[in-house]
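Attaching the record inline, Q. Sequence:
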Amino acid sequence: MVTLDEKGHQIQSTVMVTDGNHLRQQIASIKGHKEVVLEEGTMSAWLDQKLRPVADRLVVCDPTENAKFFRDRKSDEPDARRLADLLRLGALKAVYHPDHPIDDLRSPLRSYVELTQETTRVKNRIQAVYRSRGIATRGEAYAIEYRACFSQWI
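Structure, as predicted:
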């Protein structure tokens, strides 16, 4: 985390722990107007939800759009400083994050869909193993009665 004053002078630079309450406390402890910027990623929706109440303005930006400003390798401290400068200059393209109750359902729903797909993949793989061994099944090769066929190979 990099903190700048209104003129762009760096006040502090801190490595933060990924803990919602700790991040909230850190941002709340900053005096004055608080603008927060973070790049879109796997935790950005969660961070948006956690930090929006303590920030006067929160911008989630598109890292692919920011790439033109980052000429050298990416690393946390210089990136944080550049993002803070870009936010101050109004040069960041924000990503839309809806403020909607359905957001709380997205993660469990995504997990459900992924687990369903993974279960189907595993079942198809088991079926393929039976076929490769010449074992005829009635479409449910993963059923308990077929498991005994493989006990000799385990």
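The chain has a mean pLDDT of 79. The first strand starts at residue 2 and ends at 4.

More tomorrow.
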